[in-house]
Amino acid sequence: MRRRRLLKALDDCLSALERGESLQSCLARYPDLADELRPLLQAAQAVRAMGEPRPRPVAQASGWLRFSRRAAQLRAAQVRRPWRWLAPAAIVACVVAVMAASLTATVMAASRSLPGDPLYRVKLLAEEAHVLATWDREARARLLLDQADRRIAEIEKVSARKGQVPGEALAALRSRVARASRLLEGYDTVLAQQAQARLEQQQAYLIRLAGQAGIGARDDLVATIAGLHNARLRLAGRGVVLPAESLAGGLLQVEGVARPTSEPGVWLIGPYQVRVGDVTLGDVPIEEGKLVRVLVGRDPDRVLRALTVAVVGSPGQELIIRGVVRRVEGQELDVDGRLVRLASGAALDTFNVGDTVQVRAYVSSDALVATEVRLLSGPALVSTFSLDGTAEEDLSLGQGQSTVWRVAGQRFRIIPSTVIEAQAGEPRQGAFVRVQAQRRGDELVALKVTVLSAAAPTTGSLWVQGVYQGSSGGKWLVGGTAVDPPPGASPPPPGSLVRVEAVRDGDRVEARGAVVVLGQESGVLVQLRGTLREIRPDGTWQVGDATVRVGAEAHIVGRPEVGNEVEVQARSTVSGLEAVYVQVLTPSGGGPSTPATPTPAPTPTPTPSPTPTVGSAPPTATPTVERSLPARPSAAR
Amino acid sequence: MQRAQHLDERALAWIYEHYYPRVYSYALLQTSDPALSEDIASEVMLKVLEALPRYRFRGIPLAAWIYRIAHNCVVDHHRKRRRRQEVSLDQAAPPLADHNPEAGAEASLQRQDLQRALQRLTYEQRQVIILKFVHGLDNRTIARAMGRSEGSVKSLQHRALKALERYLRETER
């Protein structure tokens, strides 16, 4: 009994000494054992004071050489000799041999099989054999990534045909991306960068699919999304893993202006508290005041953890948001989960909860602020448009008086409430300007004037952007005004946001093409203006402080080079900003851009969409078409 | 740990930088032979590297696992030495290599006394003293490293300190 007490007292005193307590205070706790404990504790203190002998640096360094050389050998062996795959390899070899000898036709059929088909397993085994026969590390990783893309295509086909998400394709996808990421881990190569982009796109597709899938498939989808995220974390060298349980409560996308909370690593995104940490990819660390789109995983305890963050906008940036009004509370609107605060003096149509609206907004330091809310249903649609063109005279403003200003052959009335934004230059003759306007009776009234660059293209090009409302008398009605349609162009679906490109040649104005920048669907169009800082091999561009993916489908006007001032109209998607329209405003040399190559504009292809619902309240503005744009300038004057 | 198991260079470098000096000092306090201890430290780190992909956390922390490998290596060398009729560990008491030349003479003498006393302990007593008071491990990790229960580690620690104190007292006389 006494011995047990002594052992306990000794252990307790040793811990106390380690914490910095004095010998006397330790012994005071055990007065009856003090004589016995004192010499033992003194001996322990003496050993502690002795310190730890250190190795000679030269010996440690030479040991490291042996160690790192051996590690390199093991690494090489790991890639060259995939022992752990030997068993499946043998099975694959047998299966492939038998099939090659007797059932060539079956193999061909298997290659076209889809998940759920009897031969699908054979297809996977044949692919596995191909992987095993590929020795080069990069080639093998590339092959696995291609196979992962194939799995996505299969999932897409099967879910469209049968309305089911095939589990075996998801499992094969998980295995392929995990192996590809392990092969590319730690290598900063072009393939590794491309892999990151491909995995991101695959993840974005599955997230969209998870939103539509039934409950039965959701767990499998969530596990695959987590697997893709972990592969991306591995490629990014994060050394952390996202457990699938962190997504057990579901996935959601949150968009809003980022505000810090008192708890480190926790941000307020719109109304949600979101943890941003090691597992968060994308535009991190988050900067306060940025408009961000965050993919959030919810764990069973309802804690929200950010998986990806994409900066969608910075303070001052303009956006067009389309969606259904879910809630109206005081000066705040909820448009499909995005909280928007109404600016005082915002131009509003009368709308109700449930109406589809188009909101023009900008990012302020703490919220999205709407300057215009227009109904996207009913006969009028959105009755404002913008015209980009060359100012033909200096804009001179009298005190509180209205004046008429000529831009690209059109006469705009500038009224006291017209907002003039002249950051890129003065609104003088020759400047390239954007006039946001509304037709009121005979006049085009300028609501806002933005100087895009001090010098305009010399070709006399102009662009009209607005919501396509329909056609009348062979003309397109865009944002309340009529424009000549480009030759041979099919009319876009009503409700689409279109950009019509025209070239002025003296008095003649010729429409050249039209681009649908935002279809009828809900979504967000971000208008970025800034310096093109970088064009990366993975297809993303750095414009100002935003990253935009510029794919083959983006319509590009001018020849963008690093250093150019550009305007990008981009859709906000799960994986960030996808450029729809890019226009060079000022070349790096400082002179005007020469955009009118002219590039053949793609003909907008109408997509089937739900019929817009008629709002319960009538729109306040009804367009009257009296003049057309673009048209011969003489007709407009 | 996962990165080290995938042979990530930075993760391996961390393990080497962190554990080579510890394994070296452990071996040196057990063998009193700096050259042999350098060999043991290199050998242990190579064994750790080879076994790392198979390491699974089953209640044994990485530190305990590495000390176990170090212990086996020291014991192997001890056996080989015995076969070659070399001086036994418990008899050997040469001064340890002191890489702190600025230490005072008195401190150096005290350290030599302590090292001599340490060498008179049994192998296991010395092991618990090194792990606990030189490397600062807790009883749980020491128990895992030695393959014993925490209770027996406490008991061994008591016996080791008692013996050490006695040997130190004898040296003073």
Q: What integer value in Å does the Rg of chain B equal?
A: 17 Å
Strand content of chain A: 25-35%
Q: What is the terminal-to-terminal distance of chain A?
A: 110 Å
Count of discrete alpha- or pi-helical segments spanning 4 or more residues of chain B: 8
Structural class of chain A: alpha+beta
Number of strands of chain A: 27
Report the average pLDDT across residues of chain B: 78
Instruction: Let me know the number of strands of chain B.
Output: 0
Q: Given this structure, which CATH class of chain B is correct? A: Mainly Alpha
Largest sheet descriptor of chain B = none
Report the portion of residues of chain B in β strands: under 5%
Going by CATH, the architecture of chain B would be: Up-down Bundle
Order of helices and strands of chain B: HHHHHHHH
The count of domains of chain B is 1
* Overall shape of chain B: globular
Describe the 3D structure:
With 637 residues, chain A is of the alpha+beta class. Chain A is built from twelve helices and 27 strands. Helix content of chain A is 30%, strand content 33%. Residues 588-627 and 631-637 of chain A have low confidence and may be disordered. Chain B is mostly helical and 173 residues long. Chain B has a single domain (2-97, 104-172), classed as PhyR, sigma-like (SL) domain (Butyryl-CoA Dehydrogenase, subunit A, domain 3, Up-down Bundle), CATH 1.20.140. In chain B, 72% of the residues lie in helices and 0% in strands. Chain B is built from eight helices and no strands. In chain B, α2 (9-31) packs across α4 (62-83), α3 (34-51) crosses α4 and α4 packs across α7 (139-146). At the A-B interface, α1, α3 and α4 of A face α2, α3, α5, α6 and α8 of B.
